[in-house]
């Protein structure tokens, strides 16, 4: 029967990371628990929602953890409730002892709290990803790539494959990451420092968003492993499993146009604020669009809502080249595209009012391109 | 037709204060608008939900406001939408001009936004409180009194009078403030520096909570005026009207006991954390209570939930006097009572397991007393 003592702050930190995979309203009730595995080496906390699983390991070697294991074992405890109780304890040290009938006694200072647990065998066997030949990625780079693309994935289940982000490694070093919801697309390419086995997977964008929250910036690199329908991101303490989406991702390369007729360079922040103003009124129009007019080197934005009012605004530009153009689109797509760009200037290139336009950072050698589809307004 | 220019930050600040009285889902649609009254002296913004009304005045004399009135008038604009539009404008200066058909053109930088407004005459006549013979109160003192009492008012409409806070001025200087929801009570007495006419009113606790948000700490004093069924709090820029509750407030003086048998002095923070732990488990019990045991000078807290587990905790005390006692109560009431106290120590005094107990700051001359009713558990 379990018995250990541990630093409350370290334990709570690990519990809170594990909890990111736990939903209190899971259809499988046992998945609302956290699994606590105590061995001579340390404690493994496990949480899962069936799609994502997180394991957090606290080693007896870790000095900050002050972990002292007196007796090993495993148990399940209701996650949210257990975390609330632990965080409420008065002392910095916490003693955990299992007693009869799967009960756990937490002692801290003068406080003694007894909680009812469950048999660890009730927990489902979750994932098996063999950990040989890892691909090693810089956490920061991976998170940046996710932030640049995952927002463009679909949130609708009508085409499940589009709710994922397409990650493809070719030539052992060339990583391409793409997401699209069929109205807009975001693609980042980069070359890895360290080579790895080629792969071609579609990762749920929701899992990637959790990944960016779980792997904080102090974790320098992350090992990546693949199995048939799962993948594993692993750091020293954390193993983050996610299922992969099944099916073939659409060919997005053929969508990217090259035959541009008009190009404009904008200050990214200025353009974003202008689009946010436009959106306030476009939300009250029938098709929710803003109209961009490029005439004789001047660019202006227009929204007309018969109910609420209208916006007319001349946009600041740094450069305008090519033909005049009038094009309408959903300003939210442009706002989100601009949020994903870290460069101060962006270049937007158009072909015609009915063809997607592209947005790229106005810096050299950045392999980051976004596509937005216009809306036909008449 | 209205025409003025103004500093955006000052205008937005005033709009946001006015908006605190405006509900976007009011049963009277015109109350979702903000009324803008422009005169030669300045601009008055008015918002109301029928219970509370807030007027904010910006003077042409106010240098920070940079207000330049070219033409006077009045108009109504959809409050939330108008505020979002103003806050999105690019420049620090904003020009407002009324054009035909109750439309308003906002110009700022290169942005020009036209909004549809409504006829000012549609706005209801709200309140009339004659502003003679004010009672002058320190804002800080009034806000403290509200924070000490208003939380104890009822949130249920079954006895409407208990949703208010009872303010009584006697002897022109003695202010008594009481709130109770019949399970607990909080009463603060104080002596005013400046005398005023005696009054006896019941103010909705919700209005008082808005008051504390609207009157920031930089406003030193507030003028208070009463009419039949309304009252007005007024500062240099802000007039805050609230309706009063009708009916007679129950006599609470007779509830306050004096014949105590047991007294304990606690560190307020320690006791609060212990009660927060107890509450985690008491929430999962049938009657939601914690049991306090006082035996031979030792005080302990106990919760037993057959479903979730139990808490047993010895409480730190600074002094225990009188008889042994076992008493059960809802820990939330004690937690909220402790939050309302600013002193580091509190004195809790008991008569019996079935009589309300009192909580006072453990400092001399503080006329602040709270009452909590125990729960009979068998």
Sequence-ordered SSE layout with sheet pairings:
2 copies of one chain form a homodimer.
Chain A: E1 3-7, H1 8-19, E2 33-38, E3 42-48, E4 52-59, E5 68-71, E6 73-78, H2 79-88, E7 93-99, E8 103-108, E9 111-116, E10 118-119, E11 135-138, H3 139-149, E12 164-170, E13 174-180, E14 184-191, E15 199-204, H4 205-214, E16 221-226, E17 230-234, E18 238-243, E19 262-267, H5 268-282, E20 290-295, E21 298-305, E22 309-315, E23 319-322, E24 325-329, H6 331-339, E25 345-350, E26 357-361, E27 368-372
Question: What can you tell me about this protein's structure?
Answer:
The structure is a homodimer of 378-residue chains. By secondary structure, chain A is an alpha+beta fold. Chain A folds into three domains: 3-122, DNA Polymerase III, Chain A, domain 2 (Roll); 135-253, DNA Polymerase III, Chain A, domain 2 (Roll), CATH 3.10.150; 256-372, DNA Polymerase III, Chain A, domain 2, CATH 3.10.150. Chain A has six helices and 27 strands. Chain A has helices spanning 8-19, 79-88, 139-149, 205-214, 268-282, 331-339; strands spanning 3-7, 33-38, 42-48, 52-59, 68-71, 73-78, 93-99, 103-108, 111-116, 118-119, 135-138, 164-170, 174-180, 184-191, 199-204, 221-226, 230-234, 238-243, 262-267, 290-295, 298-305, 309-315, 319-322, 325-329, 345-350, 357-361, 368-372. In chain A, the strands form four sheets. Chain A has a nine-stranded antiparallel β-sheet with strand order 10-6-2-3-4-18-17-16-11. The longest helix of chain A has 15 residues, at 268-282. Chain A is elongated, with a radius of gyration of 26 Å. The N and C termini of chain A lie far apart (72 Å). Chain A binds chain B through residues 78, 81, 84-85, 88-90, 103, 110-116, 270, 273-274, 276-277, 280-281, 307-316, and chain B through 78, 81, 84-85, 88-90, 103, 110-116, 270, 273-274, 276-277, 280-281, 307-316. Strand 9 (111-116) of chain A pairs antiparallel with strand 22 of chain B.
